[in-house]
């Protein structure tokens, strides 16, 4: 996220957040007030990336959709700039952020995936392809990156007895481009082809694990009908 924030359309939007670390280096002594301010600026940055530039890869996603976290203070962290391969100094702002991030993973992320993966062997991935396409090349490329990285955490594979015993795997996946009613009927095959192209890397991983994969387009309006002009 730090690398992405320093280039392209994200760079000017990240200025306030990164300027804070110029004034309060991450190796300084931990200060909860500075940490909260950094979190708020980072969350504002993610929100602006989504609303102004239509970006998709915005992590952690919980910053934009807090869900039902009982203690929101578990979310008061953000990425911090450190030298390559440097370890946070004990008692530093970076160490505080790292501790909160590990707590977030343990309290929110891990239970979510454990519940999601417990009995799931079918998955439908809904993608607003048209939104990213209309927003321009950078937004479209960012959507591809988001899909590739997010889907990398899912376990694909053909359902069998051993996998039932040692953990469920997703053996059928449907990638669906939404808002098909915004596209003329004659062009919907192109929308489906675009959907398939966006998820080419996850599709190859799923097929390598013997999962069944398909791409399609759909509309939430049941009565969608093409009217000749």
List unreliable stretches of 5+ residues.
Answer: 160-166
**Mean pLDDT rating:** 86
Strand fraction: 5-15%
Q: Report on the biggest sheet.
A: 3 strands, parallel
Short summary:
With 229 residues, the protein is mostly helical. The protein has two domains: 2-116, no CATH class; 119-217, no CATH class. 49% of the residues lie in helices and 8% in strands.
Helices and strands in order:
Layout: H1 2-5, H2 10-13, H3 15-23, H4 32-53, H5 93-117, E1 122-127, H6 129-135, H7 137-151, H8 161-166, E2 172-177, H9 188-198, H10 200-208, E3 212-217
Helix pairs in contact: 3-4, 6-7
Overview of the structural elements:
The structure is a single chain. This protein is mainly α. 49% of the residues lie in helices and 8% in strands. The protein contains ten helices and three strands; from the N terminus they run αααααβαααβααβ. It has a three-stranded parallel beta sheet. Helix 3 packs antiparallel against helix 4 and helix 6 runs antiparallel to helix 7.
């Amino acid at each position: 996220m730090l690398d992405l924030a320093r280039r392209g359309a994200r760079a000017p939007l990240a200025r306030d957040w990164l300027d804070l670390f110029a004034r309060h280096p991450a190796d300084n002594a931990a200060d909860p007030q500075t940490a909260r301010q950094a979190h708020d600026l980072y969350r504002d940055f993610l929100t602006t990336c989504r609303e102004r530039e239509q970006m998709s890869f915005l992590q952690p996603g919980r910053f934009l959709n807090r869900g039902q976290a009982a203690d929101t203070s578990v979310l008061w962290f953000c990425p911090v700039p450190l030298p390559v391969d440097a370890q946070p100094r004990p008692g530093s702002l970076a160490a505080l952020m790292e501790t909160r991030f590990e707590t977030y993973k343990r309290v929110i992320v891990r239970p979510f995936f454990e519940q999601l993966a417990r009995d799931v062997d079918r998955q439908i991935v809904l993608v607003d392809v048209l939104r990213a396409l209309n927003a321009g090349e950078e937004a479209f490329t960012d959507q591809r990156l988001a899909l590739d990285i997010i889907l990398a955490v899912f376990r694909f594979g053909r359902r069998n007895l051993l996998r039932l015993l040692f953990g469920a795997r997703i053996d059928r996946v449907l990638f669906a481009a939404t808002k098909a009613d915004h596209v003329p009927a004659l062009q919907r095959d192109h929308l489906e082809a675009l959907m398939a192209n966006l998820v080419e890397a996850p599709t190859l991983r799923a097929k390598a694990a013997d999962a069944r994969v398909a791409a399609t387009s759909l509309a939430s309006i049941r009565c969608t009908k093409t009217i000749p002009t």
